[in-house]
């Protein structure tokens, strides 16, 4: 048999997508600039004794408030100390103080968040309560109180500030951990025998790592600003040089020597701006790659496979004569999505199909085949960026592809109704089921509320809901999935539509419920003599309901015809391979004991070669 | 008669319900079944029937409040974390959703090495083992340093199978492993399951809502309904000629991919529903 699966290995992504955050930062101009500045700042603080030309604390009376002089590029402060040297040494204390605050906040916030998020229970409630309390405390007031009780220690106040900042990390980590804790890969790691520390270290820390780094940059900036503020108020330790004390000194001498306040202000401002910009750049970089991660849809297959015409089957006895006039006539439909780079990606090509009154036309295909796109385009409800790029959709003589939005509003619901795949997410949980049924009927049919209510109750009874009054007054979360789908079917047929678009209407339901819903759809279809477009991937559903089938693949219809012809005389190799993959009515496996020894021998002989297994990959 | 690999005896699983003195919710109400070495036992049921809970109980991920789960002569229902760890090379798992069962930020090699690190396998041997595993599930060796998002659903499920095979387990709990896959992919992954079993003699507890899938793979089949096993026996009998009214309903509800036979099945089903309803009414009246 021909291997019909196109190249299955996803194309190798450019390495750039996987490069670490750090190297991506260096390629970003803002990231590079801020990193460079911050590195220089940290280096200057570390090597302050080597870089500073003078002792930051040695003062000379005759140089008080002296201007720049030889070896003193920024002059002297009010005590006759060298401003440039003080600026460099102050970086040491200011940065170390902020780092201490950050460290305390990280240790408390991250460990607390991990434990509360991963283990939960009482620790969760206690720590959540505590973070709430901490966040409610006004930071500056606490620091002032601490200063008056404990004395003017910069280190102590930064430690207290670290505790006050810890809720920021706690909340971040807690939220990420609770989201990841129930992921299946954490369960899989547990089954693999990994201990909790390993699971947390490997699976959970990797998730919180990036947001924590971003948050750290922000917090560091805040800590520097707060610390400078405290010292500026004169509440800090006057014995060590910090940017804040320099600010304080400069402010007091602002009339005599206005330049003194400038230097620490510039350094503080530049540092805080650099940290904030760095945080923003990191977030941008991470979020851009995060989008690719969130993609859950399987990659689209390349649409180059069959340009050949679709296989058409002639009418047969069971299909001809049963149905009425042509309701929907789709001709050479093409659907494209606008790409960010201005090109259009075509996902559906040259699709033609007709639906007659009283006929059920099945669209069958695997994921990514374009069947749902086709169905949505008939309702003109394509997702953002999607549009009909070619062909026509004739419905009652009008081309829907060209109809205005106003005209479509009149057609949708009234003439063409829709049944979605996920019943629950298509009911608004804020309103009762009744109100969601009544409202469209009042708009579409122009009847009074009372009349609409009567009609809704009748419809609910008709779709097999045992207690219509109760369901009418219920909210969507109070009914089961099967009931919700019945409600949506009732809503869809409430305005006597001519055409019904059903997008995988039973996929989310249990088998026994599916059978009932299929029965209901069949009854309603013949009762109301509707045309139906049924999108599905299940051949059993097709066999149950459809009169005519179109098989789709890679955005094209590859075979179309009456249902019996497709099942018994499929001509296209892809249709044949799909039919061959059906398991229903296959041989049961039989008992373990019969032929057990024979099978082991056969297994020993038939060790598959590598090329075989690669050829069979999915 | 071969020795039993797993013997589930009267297992009860209860989840507490929030609220003061509320009766806990019984997800399993005394379930018994057994698995022999190298056998596939299919577990069929609809959503909420407890089939996934039974799988999780065997894996030690659900709280067993009554009964025993005997694995090779030893009760494993109430093991501590440490004792459980020694079982990791014996009982493994393949989950339903290949999109969330692989950590998106780890490469395939890191994912596959993970269970090996627990066994303290040397790094060099581990990478060799990874290549061997990828080969076993039909993926090329250059898959090792890629991320999960670069693979399709079927390929991801192969990776999940490779991870389960890493420690040469004797039993793999498969929780709806093919229900998120396309039809043709599903058939190939099922064949892979079969092929691995015939080669390695691993046993499967195969949980699925799809009678056809279970029939294709299982030697024996158990049908679950509301936390109980209502029918249990040879695969072809349970899936071909069921006795219990619920299994009959389940069997007839699945549409056959043949318009004419489906028409017949539909008629039989509707007749059966009427009969069962009448029988139910009579039983209620009596």
TrEMBL record, chain A:
Membrane topology, record value: Multi-pass membrane protein; Peripheral membrane protein
GO BP terms in the entry: transmembrane transport
Stored SMART domains: AAA
PROSITE patterns cross-referenced by the UniProt entry: ABC_TM1, ABC_TRANSPORTER_1, ABC_TRANSPORTER_2
Transmembrane segments: 30-52, 95-120, 126-146, 153-174, 260-279
One cellular component term from this protein's GO annotations in UniProt: plasma membrane
MF GO annotations: ATP binding; ATP hydrolysis activity
Protein name, per record: ABC transporter
Organism: Cryobacterium arcticum
Lineage of the organism: Bacteria, Bacillati, Actinomycetota, Actinomycetes, Micrococcales
Automatic annotation (TrEMBL), chain B:
Positions of the ABC transporter domain: 6-251
One example GO MF annotation: ATP hydrolysis activity
Highest taxon listed in the record's lineage: Bacteria
InterPro entries according to UniProt: AAA+_ATPase, ABC_transp_ATP-bind, ABC_transporter-like_ATP-bd, ABC_transporter-like_CS, P-loop_NTPase
Cross-referenced Pfam families: ABC_tran
GO biological process, one term: transmembrane transport
UniProt KW keywords: ATP-binding, Nucleotide-binding, Transport
Family classification: Belongs to the ABC transporter superfamily.
The protein, known as: Peptide ABC transporter ATP-binding protein
Organism: Cryobacterium arcticum
Lineage: Bacteria, Bacillati, Actinomycetota, Actinomycetes, Micrococcales
